[in-house]
Amino acid sequence: MAELDTLAVNTVRCLCVDAVEQAESGHPGTPMGIAPVAYTLWQKFLRFDPADPIWPNRDRFVLSEGHASTLLWSLLHLTGVRAVDPDYEVLGRPAVTLDDLKTFRQLDSRCPGHPEYRWTSGVETTTGPLGQGVATSVGMALAGRWLAARYNQPGFSLFDFDVYALAGDGCMMEGVASEAASLAGHHRLANLCWIYDSNRITIEGHTDITFTEDVAARFLAYGWNVTTVADANDLAAVERALHSFRAETERPTLIVVHSHIGYGSPVEDSPEAHGSPLGPDGVRAAKRFFGMPEDQDFYVPDGVREHFAQGIGARGAELHASWERLFEGYRAAWPAFAKETELIQRRELPDGWDQLLPDFPPDPKGLATRDSSGKVLNALAQRLPWLIGGSADLAPSTKTLLTFGGAGSFQPDSPLGRNLHLGVREHASAAVTNGMALVKLRPYWSGFLIFSDYAKAAIRLSALMEIPAIHIFTHDSIGVGEDGPTHQPVEQLAGLRAMPGLLVFRPADAGEVVETWRAVARLHHEPAALVLSRQKLPTLDRSVLGPASGVAHGAYVLADAPSGAPQVILLATGSEVHLALSAREELAADGIGARVVSMPCWELFDRQPREYRDQVLPPSVKARVGIEQASTFGWDRYVGDRGTVIGMNTYGASAPLKQLLTRFGFTPERVARAARELVEAGPS
Amino acid sequence: MAELDTLAVNTVRCLCVDAVEQAESGHPGTPMGIAPVAYTLWQKFLRFDPADPIWPNRDRFVLSEGHASTLLWSLLHLTGVRAVDPDYEVLGRPAVTLDDLKTFRQLDSRCPGHPEYRWTSGVETTTGPLGQGVATSVGMALAGRWLAARYNQPGFSLFDFDVYALAGDGCMMEGVASEAASLAGHHRLANLCWIYDSNRITIEGHTDITFTEDVAARFLAYGWNVTTVADANDLAAVERALHSFRAETERPTLIVVHSHIGYGSPVEDSPEAHGSPLGPDGVRAAKRFFGMPEDQDFYVPDGVREHFAQGIGARGAELHASWERLFEGYRAAWPAFAKETELIQRRELPDGWDQLLPDFPPDPKGLATRDSSGKVLNALAQRLPWLIGGSADLAPSTKTLLTFGGAGSFQPDSPLGRNLHLGVREHASAAVTNGMALVKLRPYWSGFLIFSDYAKAAIRLSALMEIPAIHIFTHDSIGVGEDGPTHQPVEQLAGLRAMPGLLVFRPADAGEVVETWRAVARLHHEPAALVLSRQKLPTLDRSVLGPASGVAHGAYVLADAPSGAPQVILLATGSEVHLALSAREELAADGIGARVVSMPCWELFDRQPREYRDQVLPPSVKARVGIEQASTFGWDRYVGDRGTVIGMNTYGASAPLKQLLTRFGFTPERVARAARELVEAGPS
């Protein structure tokens, strides 16, 4: 048996080496060093059914050191993992064939350079940007906790999966990992195990040159269980460490594994082993070292696949089958809960999910969109039990606290709580939200829009992975007022809008907020960013204005020129829609017909058929004024050559909002003047 | 004396309370709790001359918990700090008058909501976004180390300043602070002291709800000296702790101070004390508690200003005067070095700084702009000794290693080194770079463009502060190739370009790289981002093309239509300039005259007089094709209504570059086709 273990480990190693060599690109050293650990975990511990890699109670494996992707590709191949639509269906064909491995890093290969969620089944989250995988794993473990608390019943341990993340020195250095580790320690996530592949080599050299902290002591300070494996090749020690994780019930576990990058190759323990193929001589030397045939590429010795089938394969099948039996009993005993878990898996909404959505009567005084959003969120959350989330220590300001009976605080001793306290950790907040979304809860987090900068890399991953994470950002402009330029977003909207796949909503009033949430709730594969005001905004009277349901089209005519043939179009989002409406009145007094277009979601508008877009923005009307308390960057697409944009091209200032509006020119007079000038100039 | 200390502390507290009350906005609780510590530090330890707050060897005080800005405003007022142009000149008037304090958070007040560098003298760095101040302080301490290593001589301890940062629970939770603390520990920065104002209260409540790690143990793990003050009001204990920092010679120091937010007010120890005025009753109760007259606002008791004058004032004046005497001797003994330190203070370049800049001969094969940039950087660094920097563990890839004789690695035992190893810590890398720039070195850091996302918040601060930090980003597009979409930037360029005050350069060839660096070296008050290719790019033959000096104008005509009257304009940056040139050839073969405009820096182009801009992009030529391997977001400004953009509107893919160029349409044929279609369509 021990011999077969070694053979399997070395098979993995050589597949990784060959894939990189064939691609003439990639990272051979990390898989060579850590293969024994990944092997032991998969073969002997991971509760994972290769025949159904989306079985809901599977253990999650996150390859946080995503550059070692060949390790995952090799394991997916050797264990015979089936392809799936990652959200819904087992497709049956293998996820990774030997031919796929041979096309590593080629266009459309199932084996890309880094693991990509929704592209290769068995990939639980997209990794590569360091620190993201481990941080995301914390969200998965939190989601596991919540699922267990809500759905497990006496005799029905429906959800008890563990989450493993394999991370390198780079991950350990990233701030997002520190934030997430601190949060995991607070939550005593005993279902979470990070394996730290400590090979002490990074791209610039030995970690001695910059990373000399005591990582184990740091994690003890976070409240983790820490154990060490002195030699990655000591399979018995690796097993013992994984057993110690399983035995731990109060804390997350960090297993520090001392490994050797490029183990068995001529460049062992050197940075050269990190990011380049070994070259033909290196490959041969490594294969010789591992006792594998030197001249055979992509070689899988007899018995290795069978060995995996008897290990993870048989165990996973049995665990899964017994879970399915359990679930049949559960369905009989707890039909409503069973139904919920099925909806969750298919990312579907329960019947009546929108029944409690409020209707906001017209109100010239109105309320801040952060406030109306808070009300809508609470209404939605009461009917959508798996809508859970929290804030990066700003819930009282972002108004995202769920306050209805039973919502409660999510804490180690109250894992049914719906309100997470994420702390002043924006980056981890977004990553944790991603992790919860990958377990298919509907999670959100909130912060000030300016702090989206801190979380940018994780927001991007939600878009790249096509998962419906919800990012709620309030205090969305110089409307922040006195806190000043450090807290006033200017370029953040442009940065988020430029991100492919992210839907950015900036609603103008409570009515648009309701419709924004209605659209967001229905998303299956897109993350959304909600951009909300700190200051009060009138609730518009929809009996005389375009209906807020226009949000679904991204932009719509809110108020038209009296004649129906506008001379000028005022385009705005959020708080500036009201400015546009005021300017329209002024222009009307001057006999100028202006149309006001509210544009809460550019991305949705861009997807409308040309006919609709031309209806909202008639190409013949070239006099257009864009108005937004944000960078003008990107507005030219809508205002065109002859249009003008009233926005921010500098940072803001610390002052009460009214002073800022005058200083930066967000007044009806200025908008009207700009419009008038365009109309008077006539077609160029 | 002890009584005067207490009176001074309470004066500070009440000024803070009154300023917030008057503004009806702000954060009274933190200053009330931590005032005794800030007072003790300023009055008894800080080597700072209020009469010259830019004295180069002053200790730096960073208010990382920037929301407590009134604490700083009060101290600046009471110690009589003079106003300065923050870079160059003492202006003489007070930095903060009592009237300024009374206009806290009003438009144009010297006392804005958060400390803003270059706006109020005595502010060493802009703070507010949590974690940034402490991370920046590490850069200041590193710069201090380097200055000492280069300029101190036997008998001339020219630079021996310390750096203090006052931080709250929020700062301690932020990942950027963790990254920076780990780096500071590695560098054994005994000149760095963080004071952790541990009041255990954040906006959502007690830190118990999310932040239960052992911070002291964590910092010990980073290699710090940690000491604790049990009660912020125990001035003797605070003094002892600060002495222990001064006595420590091997490690940075963390002083954990247990404090009470809103101390002395009815909302003491509650989140309500954080971000709202106390209200009239609360103010009166607090003043009563502190034994101050309840009905006097902005009250400075007799003797308090004099007390500060005798403490920090007298000490600072003496230290400064003795330093000036020292410097006179130094100037005589070490004139060349003395000259350098003066140039540094005025952000000036030494004579001959550009003498070694290379000239790259035309070469169709060429080299990657990361490679040419590496060569230029090395040439520049040899003549500009205080150009120092490093990489977030990617120097071999970003080519930013200084390799000339004597450059060396910056390490605890070799602080003269020019190469910092910043580790896989992008966010701290940018913040540390800001810190070094604030001490007026010319620092840079490098990483892959995709990882600019991690560092976004710190890059923004360099722009907001108007400091010439240099951010070097390579691997700038799908040109990254096999690493795939996690590593291929798409929206990063748009996000950086939308940031006010940041100059973003994407040079097309080695010639433009030289001119980019020439422009960047001369910057005084603007940060720059260099965006460079991983892949080789031809070095253009400038004898037949427009001169690379056009970089200084942001955009320029690289190649014109044979007739000089172009039918179509091809606009491109970086690697796509070469694509544009190829397409131009194709079009010429079809008899279509195309102009190629290289646009390495949009921001500089936007600043040119309209005449120049119209010369480069004649308004009459409406057939325009923008080409960039990045999000098309923002391009409409240049291509106009009738133009088209060939860019990325999705994420990339893992594949060799050639396959990606075809897949995503970056081929001369497609560009030529797009141009031809526009020309054939004629004016609309």
Automatic annotation (TrEMBL), chains A, B:
EC main group: transferase
Enzyme Commission number(s) of this protein: 2.2.1.1
Tagged with keyword Magnesium: yes
Catalytic activities: D-sedoheptulose 7-phosphate + D-glyceraldehyde 3-phosphate = aldehydo-D-ribose 5-phosphate + D-xylulose 5-phosphate
Superkingdom of source: Bacteria
SMART domains: Transket_pyr
UniProt keywords, alphabetically: Calcium, Magnesium, Metal-binding, Thiamine pyrophosphate, Transferase
Essential cofactor(s): thiamine diphosphate; Mg(2+); Ca(2+); Mn(2+)
Domain Transketolase-like pyrimidine-binding: 367-539
Pfam family, one: Transketolase_N
Cofactor binding note: Binds 1 thiamine pyrophosphate per subunit. Binds 1 Mg(2+) ion per subunit. Can also utilize other divalent metal cations, such as Ca(2+), Mn(2+) and Co(2+).
SUPFAM superfamilies referenced in this protein's UniProt entry, alphabetically: Thiamin diphosphate-binding fold (THDP-binding), TK C-terminal domain-like
UniProt keyword tRNA-binding, yes or no: no
InterPro entries: THDP-binding, Transketo_C/PFOR_II, Transketolase-like_C_2, Transketolase-like_Pyr-bd, Transketolase_bac-like, Transketolase_BS, Transketolase_CS, Transketolase_fam
Subunit and partners: Homodimer.
Physiological role: Catalyzes the transfer of a two-carbon ketol group from a ketose donor to an aldose acceptor, via a covalent intermediate with the cofactor thiamine pyrophosphate.
Sequence similarity: Belongs to the transketolase family.
Protein name: Transketolase
Annotated source species: Streptomyces luteireticuli
